[in-house]
Amino acid sequence: MKFRNLLTALTLVLLVGCSEAQNNEHNVAQTHNHKQEVFYETPVYEKEWMQPGIHPDRIMLNIGADPTTTASVTWRTTTEVKTAYAEIAKATAAPKFWRTAQRFTAKTTLLDGREVEDAGIMSNHHSVTFNTLEPNTLYGYRVGDGEHWSEWIQFKTASKTNDKFSFIYLGDAQNNIFELFSRAIRQGFQKAPDARFIVYAGDLVSPADSEEDWTEWFKAGGFIHSMIPSFPSPGNHDYHRVYEHEGNKGKYKQKLSIQWRQQFTLPENGPKGVDELKETSYYMDFQGVRMISLDTNKLLEEQAKWLREVLANNPNKWTIVTYHHPFYPISRGRADRTRRDLFKPIFDEFKVDLALQGHDHAYARGRTIDKTTGTMYVVSIGGGKMYRLSPEGWERWGAKQERDAENTQLVQVLTVDGDTLQYKSYTATGELYDAFDLVKNEKGPNTLVDRQSEAIDARYHHNTVNKYHDELPLDLKNIVMAKYKDAGYVNLQVDKIKRALDSEAGIYYGIEIRNKAKEKLKIKIDESGNIFEEKFEAKY
Q1: Are 121 and 112 in contact (CB under 8 A)?
Q2: What is the tens place of the pLDDT at every residue in 276-325?
Q3: Rounded to an integer, what distance in angstroms lies between the CA atom of residue 300 and that of residue 339?
Q4: pTM for the model
Q5: Nearest residue to 415 via CA among 167, 176, 209
Q6: Contact 198, 181 (CB under 8 A)
Q7: CA–CA distance, 368 with 371 (Å, rounded to integer)
């Protein structure tokens, strides 16, 4: 009897224990399943992350005006490396292919950014140009100081015949480069691992001299930069403003990023005698394509004259021009016609086939409505900064957007094969978003084969993941506008509102407002209406 009572008691204890355990598990499950608000935390990059070392980094491959015989490589080290080398050999599958290598001493220059805002680093930059290469040949190269070497990196020179090839085109990287632009460039590499070069339509970074941004840009692309040559065109954010007077007001001059010419070795065949356009306005011929970079930030008249000469003496079947500022803007608040009025007549006269542009942080492509000139204009975005499309479209300027998008990171792969140029635009997640073919027509403009029906549905802010901007509560909006109205800040940028979390202030809204002079004021206001941070930025 005692045994039976003891057994019963033990059974009750076990049942109670199991019941409590189940309740605890249920409570834990409820805790884990409870949806909490997530605030995005921007990564912090320590200074050590962007410092050069004794080992080569930022290895960048560029091709010359004649890519059948010429290629250049640049890289970075600490200032301890006074003498550096590049070795190159024809690549074979044998591990010791390097036995036939030649060694070249690099040109070394010092980049002293200690007194430059956003830079702050001293480094040596090394460059070598290989100018006796053989066409259509696979080479392996490495760079170093004689002891500390990079890996062997392979690339192929262009063919002298107009063989089929592909290249990649990317719009602005600019913001959140390592976080988000990395998705686009790596997706491009996945789609076209044999691409022969990559076109960048400006705003690679922002601000122009930021070592942090340049570090992000190089790390986003990783080894891709050293294998697939870059063909970059500078955007407005690749320049910084040098004001005549203190206070960042009044007259200013635009100065190219101090890293640009140190990190790229590009053709020097731009407008003669205009040093300011050196390695920003240039061209190359690649297997039947004349690829031209315009620097649409400055000296436009000088470039227009040069462009006419470059196009008048063009033996290639295809002509593609890349530059930053769209002739037909697609984003709200942009309507500049200076560049269109200057350059479009030249494009029309010489039948430019394709214009690859950036700047507007959205996507569109199309042609003039009469379709008599044939140029296809494309604007794309590779990074994470997004704008809204202008509701007016291109019709007000006599053109039509045939496909567009908002809030979507994209990368383009273009393939040239004889009389056909194939264009495909992919999302950063690999979905086909837009496609068309241009077919050469001896009797008139190119024939367009529109293939967007093969792509996914159109993407805009209203039908993509979350809203691009957070809503500012009306009471907080009234506080902000009341405080800053007298100072002329009447333009609240609704696309520049971010709800975030601060360790001390708690939940807050980051807001950007502008005055009529387009000067920016960035503020942070908590949910109680307390403004706890103000940051003024001059017009850019």
Answers
A1: no
A2: 999 999 999 999 999 999 999 999 999 999 999 999 999 999 999 999 99
A3: 8
A4: 0.87
A5: 167
A6: no
A7: 5
